[in-house]
Design goal:
Helix content: 40-55%
Distance between the termini: 12 Å
Number of domains: 1
Largest sheet: 7 strands, parallel
Oligomer: single chain
Strand content: 15-25%
Order of helices and strands: EHEHEHHEEEHEHEHEHH
Bound molecules: adenosine-5'-diphosphate, magnesium ion
Mean pLDDT: 97
CATH topology: Rossmann fold
CATH class: Alpha Beta
Number of strands: 9
Radius of gyration: 17 Å
Strand order of the largest sheet: 3-2-4-1-7-8-9
Low-confidence stretches: none
Shape: globular
Length: 229
């Protein structure tokens, strides 16, 4: 079995890829080998640039082809996007393909959040569970994040999915007045203290993100919590 860190979000567009690139590049800089994968990516046509798979690959010097498996054109939940092409994602096939990848430590970016439909009767959390993964939850810092984060933590706990870390990410420059207390409320009501926040950065290249990760996140402890037995 691989050791899998499964990156999920409290929503889509919260910074799963950005935080993943930051951690991957920071770990690579300190000689730690983690292979990224975006197993299912939707909204992908032949002309789409800047895919998640490409961003993850660039963080560790791989090629986009190394970090992708299934792709669909419709920008929708994987089950819907597959259905639109007359296909159905097979969880067993997906797991088998993942187990065949080289390397021991994998960082897998899900699509959207834990309950995003993948196939009939299958949601993203089932993929994480089938892989025996530890979860990295990424949430935004903005107003509304406490509810989304607590819902994600509650579902992780209900399924017995171990939460390795929860990272809040700044998607904008503005810092709201509610932010000062957000982490404390999430810790008190959800039992997991958020790390970060990961700062807003106009520069999104791996080197800049790696430096920010080293500055704002406990990258050594995160690696150990993610991948050590
Ligand atoms: N900390 C940040 N600073 C600046 N821009 C960010 C930050 N985090 C995310 N973004 C931008 O917000 C958008 C969504 O982030 P992304 O990492 O792709 O989210 P997800 O993978 O959860 O869908 C992207 O355009 C990304 O570059
Ligand atoms: Mg992404």
């Amino acid at each position: 079995m691989k050791r899998v860190l499964f990156v999920t979000g409290t929503d889509t567009g919260v910074g799963k890829t950005t935080v993943s690139v930051a951690l991957l590049a920071a770990w690579a800089k300190t000689g730690r080998v983690v292979r990224p994968l975006k197993p299912i990516e939707t909204g992908m046509t032949d002309h789409t640039e800047g895919s998640d798979a490409a961003r993850l690959a660039a963080a560790v010097g791989l090629r986009e082809n190394d970090t992708m498996l299934w792709r669909f054109a419709l920008p929708a939940a994987p089950e819907s996007a597959a259905m639109a092409e007359g296909k159905r994602i097979d969880l067993g096939q997906l797991i088998a393909a993942i187990q065949q990848l080289p390397g021991e430590n994998l960082l897998i970016e899900g699509a959207g959040g834990l309950l995003v439909p993948v196939a009939p009767g299958v949601v993203m959390a089932d993929l994480a569970q089938a892989l025996g993964a530890r979860l990295l939850i990424v949430g935004r810092t903005q107003l509304g994040t406490i509810n989304h984060t607590l819902l994600t933590l509650a579902e992780s706990q209900r399924r017995g999915l171990p939460v390795c870390a929860l990272i809040l990410n700044r998607l904008g420059e503005a810092v709201g007045p509610q932010e000062a207390d957000t982490a404390a409320r999430i810790a008190a009501h959800g039992g997991v203290g958020p790390l970060g926040p990961f700062p807003f950065s106009r520069q999104q290249d791996p080197a800049t993100l790696a430096a920010l990760a080293a500055q704002h996140l406990p990258i050594d402890a995160l690696f150990e919590r993610a991948f050590l037995p």
